[in-house]
Amino acid sequence: MSNLSGRRVDRPAIIVGVVLLAAAAVVAYDANNIHAGFTYGISPSAVPFVIAAFLAVLGVGHFVAAFKEGLPTPDEADWGAVGLMSAGLFGLIASIAFGGGFILGSTILFALTARSFGRKALIADIAIGFVLGLFIYILFNRLLGLGLPSGRIERGVLIGLDGVVGWVSGLFGSSAQ
Amino acid sequence: MDSLLALGSGFLVALEPINLLFAAIGVVLGTAVGVLPGIGPALTVALLLPVTFRLDPGGSIIMFAGIYYGGMYGGSTTAILLNTPGESASVVTALEGNKMARAGRGGPALATAAIGSFVAGTLATIGLAFLAPWLVRVAVNFGPWDYFALMVLAFVTVSATFGSSPLRGLTSLAFGLVLGVIGIDQLTGKARLTFGVPELLDGIEVTTLAVGLFAIGEAIYVVSRHLHAPEKPIPVKGSLWMTKEDWKRSWKPWLRGFGFGFPIGALPAGGAEIPTFLSYTTERRLSKHPEEFGRGAIEGVAGPEAANNASAAGTLVPLLTLGLPTSATAAILLAGFQQYGLQPGPLLFAQAPDVVWGLIASLFIANTMLIILNLPLIGIWVRLLAVPLPWLYAGILVFAAMGTIAANPSPVELIMLVIFGFIGFLMRRYDYPIAPAVVGLILGPMADNQLRRALQISLGDPMILLENPGSATLLAIAALALILPFATKQLRKFKAEED
Questions:
Q1: Within chain A, what is the greatest distance between any pair of CA atoms?
Q2: Which domain of life is it from (chain B) (predicted)?
Q3: pLDDT band at residue A160 using 50, 70 and 90 as cut-offs
């Protein structure tokens, strides 16, 4: 940023403008690479080109805005808290991606999110997150029939659950059959 | 007469015990989630969508109706007691409603909001039942050019006309449009913007975008500024019931709110903000107690809340008859329909009348259940407001993750959810509206297809859009709606310089 205009140029607006121009280039590049081949009628790349042009106009619009009113100035942010919450979200993704399962993932997410809001009782929050994840898992798996990603914990839970169900139905076995 | 018969058979569907149960579950779930601070009806519907996956289309759409109305009711409760409107349409409700709650009149504020919503919602649903078949008859004659022009109009009004900044609104729309291009093109089967990632071939899920932008984005935004003293809920003191005086001051605003809300909501332009603001200013002008405005006037809650609900029912008119969503909530409802292979539009009325009319009938039922269930249960909902923020948002994030992986159990889907969450956070931070992105994602590919169909018929001549009177008029209105905010801004600036 030059000293001449440094004070008056709104940096976030410039960044958004650059992102929009880059997006316009990517969309146009991709549209250019669609080989319509033997399809008849209007090419599927027509509308992407229009959108790319639209993005470019908006990018330029942001540059203009940067020299005028700019974007609204946001409040000071608590980046530490944002970082903690992000860690929770990435923990969830990692748990699902590497076979840790849903319950472990939601425990991490719950505990770290609660901590990002300033709670100190980490152990209690881990316990709450675990119970919540367990509850949701059983609800989805058994009542709604939707399979959430399973890891070791979930397999253990299902075996345990089947055991309990088997035991309970064993108690009432004669009447149920 | 057709409407009455069709509605009657719709009631037969909706009044089946199992469907009544679905409606009741929907209303309770919708209220419970909608009452949580920062969660508006759009997010409520998006979060609860996966719960309805395994039901049959009829039952799940009836449950939707309950969730939708329950979410609206919950949202107004939060606006009144917590001053955190979950969506822009209840901003006005918070204005007077929160002042009333602070003055110890939270009970009557909630009651007039609930009863007003019921009255206006019921009237608007009647309007929907009578207007829809008529509009369907008109819409049958629509060509692809007309649909394309309608969608362009919706794009412009949703993103540019009503927001605080047309530039930021249009940017949000463009973001949604780009996401809409991603995936296999429906007409030619070509992959667009997928970069070789197989998960992207199916396109971006509307619910993933909505939950990411709304839920995760909101959570990150709130935690980023939670040092800025969060609001505490105001306990409901005194009588819950409205006095005779309250009734006398409420019933006219309810009806006027319906008068503003339904027609504006039913226009293919969307936006519940305009009718709520119109209702508020009208009530202030007509009130016999104008001095109370700004300090908790009951008319200022009754009118806008009625307008809000009436316009919500109004947006169902273009959604059901034209397949045109004009709000974030409508966009998510449309995604819900599509999940069951139902495409709203004139054909749906012919192909699945029992679903459409069952839905319309269950809107009446959901509305009635809301008032029966929620006035007595208000104490429980208020207690939900008192859930500590850390657990509240931790729970919201877990639910958001749950919904996303239940719909599509892949890490790629989750990664998209989190990326959308960060984008939603930045959009909130710099005041970009969220709804245009969601509408752009769902309407973009539809507009793309309609445009290409139109051009195929005209052998590639774009003039077909201007040669048809219908589409030409709509495009002209769209152009006007696009220029208007820029023009008024210039005008205002011009005036300011003159002063």
A1: 90
A2: Bacteria
A3: confident
| Cross-chain CB nearest to B53 (options A106, A132, A144) | A144
Query: Which DSSP letter does residue B46 get?
Result: H
* Domain assignment of residue B321, given as a range: 2-498
- The nearest CA of chain B is from the CA of A26 a distance in Å of 8
Q: Is B462 on the interface with A (CB under 8 A)?
A: no
Instruction: Tell me: pLDDT of B489 over 80.
Output: no
- What is the tally of structural domains in chain B? 1
Q: Does A14 touch chain B (CB under 8 A)?
A: no
Q: Do A78 and B431 touch (CB under 8 A)?
A: no
Residue B447 to residue B139: CA distance in whole angstroms: 16
Give me the sign of the Cα torsion angle B253, B256, B262, B265: negative
pLDDT of residue A3: 43
From chain A, pick out residues whose CB is under 8 angstroms from the CB of B181.
Answer: 27, 47-48, 51
CA distance A103 to A109: 10
CB-based contact, A147 to chain B, within 8 Å:
yes
**Rounded-to-integer distance, Cα B71 and Cα B45, Å:** 8
Whether residues A119 and B390 touch (CB distance < 8 A) is answered with yes
Taking the C-alpha atoms of residue B288 and residue B467, their distance in angstroms, rounded to an integer, is 52
- How far B427 CA sits from the closest chain A CA (Å)? 11
Q: Which of A69-78, A138-147, B248-257, B369-378 has the highest mean pLDDT?
A: B248-257
- Per CB-CB distance under 8 Å, the chain B contacts of A62 are 167, 171
Structure confidence at residue A5 (pLDDT): 45
Per CB-CB distance under 8 Å, the chain B contacts of A22 are none
Helices (H), B323-434: 328-339, 346-351, 353-385, 389-407, 411-429
In this predicted structure, the answer to whether residue A176 has a pLDDT above a threshold of 60 is no
Q: How far apart are alpha carbons B107 and B118 in whole angstroms?
A: 16
Reading the block at residue B484, the tokens are 């208007």
CA B128/CA A117 separation, integer angstroms: 44
Res. B221: pLDDT tops 60: yes
| Joined tokens for residue A42 | 């209007």
Confidence (pLDDT) at A2: 42
**Token code pair at residue B326:** 């004009």
